[in-house]
Amino acid sequence: MEKIAIIDLGSNTARLVIANIMDGGYFMVVDELKEPVRLAQDMEIDGYLRPLRMAQTIKTLRTFRTLYESHKVDKVFAYATAAVRRAKNQKTFIDDVQTACGIKLTVISQEEEAAFVYQGVINSMEVPKGLIVDIGGGSVKMIYYNRRVMIAQDTLPFGAVTLTEKFANYTHPEERALAIEKYVGEHLAKLPWLADLDPETQLIGVGGSIRNLGKISRKIKKYPLDMAHNYRIPFDEFETIYDTIKPLDLDKTARIKGLSSARADIFPAALSVIAAIKNYSYNGFDPNEIIISGAGLREGAMFRYALPTVAEKPISDILGHSIYTLLHHFNMNIAHAEHVFDLSMQLFRQLKVLHKLPRSYVKVLRVASMLHDIGSSFKFYDHHKHSMYFILNSNLYGIPQKDLVLAAIVAGLHYKDGLESLDMAKYLTMLTEEDLEAAKKLGVIVRIAECFDRSCGGVITGLTCDVLGDSVILKTKTAGDCTLEIKDAMEALPEFRRAFRKNLEIL
Questions:
Q1: Mind spelling out the 3-state secondary structure of 148-184?
Q2: What DSSP designation does 278 have?
Q3: d(CA 76, CA 165)
Q4: Burial 105-119 (b: 16+ CB within 10 A, else e)
Q5: Fewest Cβ atoms nearer than 10 Å: which of 123, 141, 223, 480?
Q6: Running DSSP on this structure, what letter comes out for residue 144?
Q7: Distance from C-alpha of 94 to C-alpha of 80, rounded to nearest angstrom
Q8: What does the pLDDT read at residue 417?
Q9: What single-letter DSSP state applies at residue 12?
């Protein structure tokens, strides 16, 4: 296993992530650090990085080096983006960083930056057609892809920091917002490929300001899950937030719950960029929501290092890759996890006539069955509850947040306890009554499947179910002694009866 450090030196913020790289193309972040550096501040005057901002950045990079050296990383990748890319004193700054910190900065091109961001998004989200908008401090990257192939990309020469400075002379905040919208719209008109967007294209937001928008939305709605990735904001909700913030001065903006104090002054400009993109006249493209991606440049760099093939072809099974990342990280019994999933799917198909659940629940079943035991890496006793917590906080890629909550509940229900004992009441607002009924049925399916591999030897290889009146006759195909498996499964008969309203007989 390798350990790498990735530094993302942006125009507003410097970020460090430290990740373990596992065999098979998996990675896991083990530490991170971020600091506001405002490197792009005052660059609009003459194109030079300011001495104070360079000094602050060097101080921050020294801190980064102290941290990643304590982790004994094998490799360091340090990427500088828009501010350094455009700076007239770029070479002087890079040399100063090398001398003072011993860090070799790589200034990546617009195309390279777009590729990293695209790879971070495309390998972590199941969105077949997307317009990625990454709002940074000194630039706005726009990337269009269709059927997981990048079609076009451009970088607008401004970001939240530089727009805030450029329009600082406006005394009324609302006038400033409208002026920024108009200015951004003029630049959008110069991108001819925007007219060719597929009407089914979805809008994906990347960057600190976008994540902060999601945090504000979750605070307003009292959303129970504090997770940025794959969080969705309907545009009518965005407009409510924007209309609330647009007329506020800085002091009032800074008091908004969920808004980072380090971002309060530039946040309105970021919202104006989103509004301009939404309001621009496209050929049938009219998204009704913003999908937030918690993965961007840094994740793209990690994907590319851990699994170099993503530079040519994205991961085909995003959810599977994410599940296996956890299984490898926690050193779980992967053969057992796979067999429980296989048996769960056999039961799901065989009992279709009873549960009548749509195929959309298969993702939920996959996560719950393959990660049902992951809580035992913390403690075996009550491991079903620990598994529930692990899944709930896993930030798995390739699955909607509601389905992640549902999978956590299913994993919690794969033992003897009922839903009322799982302490999940605050999350139930995300689910429908149909979801809860489905969770009870899926929980029983996972429980029986786990019982059928109790010895972790794969002795029960196949299942057939016959529904006869008030009973389900379950026949097993075996490749060895399955006494323990049958004995364990028999204890699940009362739960099966409650969930399916049928008696279960196991032969």
A1: CEEEEEEEECCCHHHHHHHCCCCCCHHHHHHHHHHHH
A2: H
A3: 33
A4: bebbebeebbbbbbb
A5: 480
A6: E
A7: 9
A8: 67
A9: S
User: For residue 450, what are the contacts with CB-CB under 8 A and spacing of at least 6?
Assistant: 340, 369, 372, 373, 414
The answer to whether the CB of 351 falls within 8 A of the CB of 344 is no
What pairing do the DSSP bridges indicate for beta strands 26-36 and 13-22? Answer: antiparallel
3-class state of residue 291 by DSSP: strand
Please check whether residue 270 is in contact with residue 135, taking contact to mean a CB–CB distance below 8 angstroms: yes
> Is residue 416 predicted with pLDDT exceeding 90?
no
| pLDDT value at residue 234 | 98
- Which residue is listed with tokens 């942006």? 10
Contact between residue 7 and residue 66 where contact means Cβ atoms under 8 Å apart: no
Residue pair 334/320 in contact by the 8 Å Cβ criterion: no
Range 219-228, long-range pairs (CB < 8 A, 24+ positions): 219/257, 219/258, 220/258, 224/426, 224/427, 224/429, 224/430, 225/392, 225/401, 225/404, 225/405, 225/427, 225/430, 227/294, 227/395, 227/401, 227/404, 228/292, 228/294
Please classify residue 22 by burial: count the beta carbons closer than 10 Å to its beta carbon, then call 0-12 exposed, 13-18 middle and 19+ buried: middle
Instruction: Return d(Cα 360, Cα 363) in angstroms, integer.
Output: 6
Domains and CATH numbers, the chain: 2-109 (3.30.420.40), 125-294 (3.30.420.150), 319-506 (1.10.3210.10)
Nearest to 370 by CA among 442, 440, 459, 418: 442
Amino acid, single-letter form, for residue 446: V
pLDDT for position 264? 95
Give the 3-state secondary structure of residue 102.
Answer: coil
pLDDT over threshold 90, residue 438: yes
Asked if 139 and 82 count as a contact pair (C-beta separation under 8 A), the reply is yes
The pLDDT, as a whole number, for residue 284 is 84
pLDDT of residue 420: 75
Is the CB of residue 157 less than 8 Å from the CB of residue 148? no
Confidence of residue 227 (pLDDT cuts 50, 70, 90): very high
Which residue matches tokens 């193309």? Answer: 25
Task: Report pLDDT digits (tens) over 281-304.
Answer: 788 889 999 999 999 999 999 999
Using CA atoms, how far apart are residues 344 and 234, in angstroms rounded to an integer?
35
Q: CB-side exposure of 365: number of CA atoms within 13 Å?
A: 27
Query: What integer pLDDT is reported at residue 46 of this predicted model?
Result: 95
